[in-house]
Structure formats: C-alpha cells, structure tokens
Write a structure and sequence with these properties.
Blueprint lengths: L6 H12 L4 E2 L2 H4 L16 E3 L4 H14 L2 E5 L17 E5 L6 E5 L4 E5 L4 H10 L16 H7 L6 H4 L6 E8 L4 E3 L13 H5 L7 E9 L6 E9 L2 H14 L4 E8 H10 L13 E9 L6 H14 L3 E6 L3 H12 L1 H8 L2 E2 L2 E3 L5 H15 L3 E6 L6 E8 L5 H5 L2 H14 L15 H7 L2 H14 L15
Parallel strand pairs: 2-4, 3-4
Antiparallel strand pairs: 1-2, 5-6, 6-9, 7-8, 7-9, 10-12, 10-13, 11-12, 14-17, 15-17, 16-17
C-alpha cells in the first residue's frame, strides 16, 4: 500500500492515465528496471511506468505528488551510482523515459536541436551528423544511455577537454515539476540573461527535482581533420607535461587526452575479442590523445607527429603510434572504451571517480597507489581516465584468485582513504558519475555545510512532498 492510496487504486490510476500496456508489473518484465548496471542495488516498485507524452508525465507526477508515491526517473539505466533504482519499500514507481524519444527539430543554421529525454545518445550524434553538424558528448555507454540521463547526471566522457560537460551543451530544458506543472525553457537562444538560470538546477540533479522531458542542445561544426595517437608516456607527470606541450603546439586543438595504464590494456586484450597491443613494446603508462579541427586543411597529423617528436626528445615518452587510417583510430578508441567492460568481466572493482587540479594528479596517484600496494595486497590498481580534465577513474580491482567477498568488504575503508586524500588535494569525490544512492554519505561528509543547506532548500522548494527520487543525492531528513 502506498501512503495515501492503496496499491490497487494506484495501479488503476496509472492504467487510466497511460493505458494498461504502459504499466508494467510482471516481475519478469520489470526485473531489468529494478537493478542498476553495476548490480549494486536491487529494489521493488509498485510498477514501471512508460509514459508516451509530456502530458502523461505531468498527469502521473500530479497523481504521485497527491498520493505520496515516490518517483524514480530512469533513462538507459547505465548510471554508476544507483540513482535510477527504486528502494525496497514497494512505495515507489520507476518512470521510464524510453518512449519519449523523438527528435523534435534540428536547426542547422542555429547549430541546435531539440530532443526528447528518451533519445539514445548515439542516435542524437548520428542525427547531428546527418545535418552536417556535431554533437560532441561521447561516452562508452552512448549506445544505450539517454540524453535525459546524461543531463540528469551532467555526464562527462571523452571530449570534455574541448567541449565541456553536458551542462555546457544545453540551451534550454523542458521539465515536469513534482506537482505536474511543466517548466519550459526550451528556447534556442545563446544569450538570455533574464533572471535565475533555473534549467541549470535540473542538470546533474539526478531526478531529485523534476523529470526532464526534452532539451534544446548546442551543435557544433563537424571535425573535418583528426589526428590520433597512442603514446607510451614515462608516467603520470610526463602525461601532464605532454598535455601542456600538445595544447601549445596545436593551438589548443586537443579534444581528448586519456590516460591508460598497461594493466588496463592487458585486461581489454584478455576479455574483449579483437583488441590488440597498440604498440610493439609494453610500457607502464599510455595516453590516447586526439587533435581535431573543423578545417579540412589543418594538417594535424604532421602537427601531432612533430609535437610527439619534441616530447620524445624532452624525455616525456618512449614510443608512439599515430593512427594511419580510420580503422586504426577506431581500434585505439575501442580499446579505451572497453576498459570498464573488461574490468567488469575481470571481477569485483572498487570504483573511485575523482577529479583533481591536473598538476596535482601525479602526486595523488603516487600516494594513493603506495597506500593500495601497502594495505590491499589482493588488489590491482586500474587507474585510468580523462586526465585532460583532471578526472581519474581510480579503480581498484580484485587480483585473480582473491576472495571476492573479502575484497568487497573493504570498499568503505579503501574509499575513505582515497577520498580523504582527494579532499586534501582540493579534489572532488564525484567528477562525472554523480551521487545517486552510492555517494549520499560522501556528499554529506565532504560538501561544505552551507552548500548542503542550500541544496536542501532547493530540494524543498521544488519538491516539498519529497516524491522525486527519494533518498538520492541528499540524505532524507
Ligand atoms: P540512468 O542510469 O537511467 O539514470 C541516471 C540518473 O539520472 C538517475 O538518478 C535517474 O533517476 C536520473 N534520470 C534519468 N533520466 C532522467 C530524466 N529524464 N529526468 C530526470 N532524471 C533522470 N559517465 C560519464 O559521465 N562519463 C563516462 O565516460 C561514462 N562512461 C561510461 C561507460 C560505460 C560502459 C557505462 C556503463 C557507463 C558510463 N558512464 C559514464 C555512466 C553513465 O553512462 C552516465 O552516467 C549516463 O549519463 C547515464 O545515463 P542513463 O540514461 O543511463 O541514465
Ligand atoms: C569511463 O570513462 O570509461 C567510465 O566513466 C569509467 C568507468 O566505467 O569506470
Ligand atoms: Zn569516465
């Protein structure tokens, strides 16, 4: 029984609003919606609801608000922090945005498009390309995550260095508020200084303030010249120096700069078919870097080659392979994007999605790696990620043969040490994956009290009955 209404009445209400086919209750059908990608959480729900229009979302939220039913928005369910999974009270519904998947319009002249929340990210990239434009958001999960989920987590990914996080790609949003009212800021303006920037509050709110139903998004000129290299660097400090060198030498045309340790290359080769060693020799650290330009005439290959030669002369790297064609470039990227999957197949992993000022990364890695080596002997460190953004996935995998339960039991202890160290360097304990349910206590621990107070005030203002994704991001009072 949901607070204020029986389950029977709630289900009858949902069926009346959406039609019976859009109200899922069969456990076999609902199961994939009730657990998260990492299988950290499993919940129950009154029902999984699949509205087909903004009007239906509005009607549903008004009903849930009046009856105290918690609403858990869900996109592609690829999130890493359990934000899209209901609790086990049975008093929440999962609201899937999958059927709101229409590209409403694309305006090449305005370099913008308006897409519904349920659009799969890879489809939007393709639509932009078909209009001779570029939508730069790119993540390993792009074949299944939805733009509504990307907005709600303020996703980062592989091109942040040049184009920014999801937030920076947004011109406007359409949001259904907790009480069912629709807030539309779907304008396609680049300039609009009319009061508080309300849309910004919903970006990264992980469904705790309202349901995003559509977004007006920025497009860019398509990259027409691209140069990509897989480089063996002499450590993390050398990678940081190489980034500076490349930014200078290329006139700031670096669009991706990803750090990859040898252990991650090894994992992908062992677990993902078709992945090969990118260089003849083996080295402890690599960087996958890419320069891009919207000018066909930019000779980026030569520029990258010259810069890498200078870097080699300066003792920053040992070897490098420039992608000679699109196939080779795709192979480099496939290796990088397969790391999370390879890690998952390898076994349990303690994930830490941290950000630091770039210059502090080498010392952080040195100190954190030394602690892991000394205190978690059954661990293999797989620290990789978007170093160009100061974002490292400081993941700790169980060594082959380790007892998985004993290993995972140390998660809190390891997290405390890693996060305390991150905080001491002025870093963030969630760079791009959000808070969800997983890091609620971490946010409460590391965020300044005034920030938490303001966040709670915002939550109360937008969702006074506390129906929007209860228990996520902020501790329930
Ligand atoms: P979901 O997982 O369904 O939901 C995420 C959160 O958003 C939940 O709190 C949910 O309630 C809320 N939500 C979803 N849709 C809406 C909506 N319409 N309105 C309001 N709230 C909503 N993340 C990165 O940032 N960078 C990466 O490089 C990256 N790489 C990844 C690689 C792999 C292989 C995988 C599996 C994941 C990766 N992720 C990455 C994490 C994940 O893909 C992103 O967080 C993504 O943005 C989540 O989108 P989703 O549609 O799957 O959202
Ligand atoms: C990535 O960049 O591959 C993901 O954000 C990190 C992960 O899957 O752990
Ligand atoms: Zn990432």
């Amino acid at each position: 029984m949901a607070a204020g209404v029986t389950t029977k009445v709630a289900l009858a209400g949902f069926r009346r609003m959406l039609g019976a086919d859009a109200v899922l209750t069969d456990p076999e059908v609902t199961a994939p919606y009730l657990t998260d990608h990492r299988k950290l959480y499993e919940g129950t729900a009154l029902a999984v609801l699949r509205p087909g229009s903004v009007g239906e979302v509005s009607e549903l939220l008004a009903f849930c608000n009046g009856t105290g039913i918690g609403v858990v928005p869900q996109g592609g369910n690829t999130g890493y922090c359990g934000g899209a999974t209901p609790d086990d009270s049975g008093r929440q519904v999962v609201l899937s945005l999958a059927r709101l998947a229409r590209l409403r319009r694309i305006d090449a002249a305005n370099y913008s498009m308006v897409a519904e929340a349920g659009c799969i990210l890879a489809n939007l990239q393709r639509e932009a390309e078909a209009a001779d434009r570029f939508f730069p958001l790119s993540l390993g999960s792009e074949g299944s995550c939805q733009i509504g989920g990307n907005l709600s987590t303020n996703a980062g990914g592989l091109n942040v260095l040049r184009y920014g996080m999801t937030r920076e790609l947004v011109l406007g949003l359409e949001v259904v508020l907790a009480d069912g009212r629709v807030l539309s800021t779907l304008g396609e303006l680049r300039k609009d200084n009319t009061g508080y920037d309300l849309k910004s509050l919903f970006i990264g709110a992980e469904g705790t303030l309202g349901v995003i139903t559509a977004a007006s998004l920025k497009l860019l000129p398509r990259p027409r010249a691209i140069a990509t290299a897989f480089v063996a660097v002499r450590g993390v400090a050398a990678a940081v120096d190489l980034l500076g060198l490349l930014r200078e030498a290329s006139g700031d045309r670096v669009s991706s700069f990803e750090l990859i340790p040898h252990v991650a290359v090894d994992l992908t080769i062992r677990h993902v078919p078709g992945i090969a060693q990118p260089l003849a020799g083996e080295y402890p650290w690599y960087v996958l870097c890419e320069l891009s330009s919207a000018r066909t005439a930019d000779a980026l290959d030569g520029m990258l080659e010259d810069a890498l030669r200078d870097a080699m002369d300066g003792g920053l790297l040992d070897d490098a392979a420039l992608a000679q064609n699109e196939r080779q470039r795709a192979a480099f990227w496939r290796l990088r994007e397969s790391i999370p999957e390879a890690q998952r197949i390898e076994g349990p992993s303690l994930k830490h999605d941290v950000a630091l000022p770039i210059g502090k990364l080498p010392r952080f890695v040195e100190e954190a790696a030394a602690w892991i080596a000394a205190h978690v002997p059954d661990a293999v460190l797989v620290a990789y990620g978007h170093v160009g953004d100061g974002n490292l996935h400081f993941n700790v995998n169980a060594r082959a043969g380790a007892d998985p339960l004993r290993f995972v039991a140390r998660a809190d202890e390891v997290q405390r040490v890693v996060h305390d160290l991150v905080a001491s360097f002025g870093g963030s304990v969630s760079a791009e994956h959000g808070i969800g349910r997983l890091k609620v206590d971490e946010l409460a621990r590391y965020a300044p009290p005034v920030e938490l107070e303001l966040m709670r005030a915002v939550k109360r203002a937008f969702d006074p009955n506390g129906i929007m994704n209860p228990g996520k991001v902020l501790k329930t009072q």
